[in-house]
Amino acid sequence: MRNGLMAALALTLAVGCAATDMEEEPMQIEGQEWRLTAFVHDDGRTEKPEGEISLQLDAAEARAFGSAGCNRFSGSYTLDGDTISFGPMAMTKRMCPPKLMANEDLFAAWLGQGGILSFENGELRYQSQAGELLRFALAPATE
Are 139 and 32 contacting, i.e. CB atoms less than 8 angstroms apart? Predict the structure, then answer.
């Protein structure tokens, strides 16, 4: 029985060491469509977005664009390592239900602060300068 426990412990340690030695391959931020999955407020409250909010970064033109849930937006961005900042954004002016408009205002305000990008568990995370967090998932590929 002791030999069985020792073998199980050795296997657990070997698998654990192998997992920590493997580095997660960095995901490409630019040239992808990212869909917002959650707003995480600085007090820890998590809110699912209404509508489909997306963000794309075009490296060739240093242009950010996407959908804020109701309206489309476009503007410049600067990416320096993991720090991103956005220039003034042009946005269409459609009226939508109040909850969509509230999410859109929140999304635009948080992006406007600039922040830090990171990856965790396959998702893109944008931490604003004020501490709020936007979590994005890679959009499914379209044919």
Answer: yes
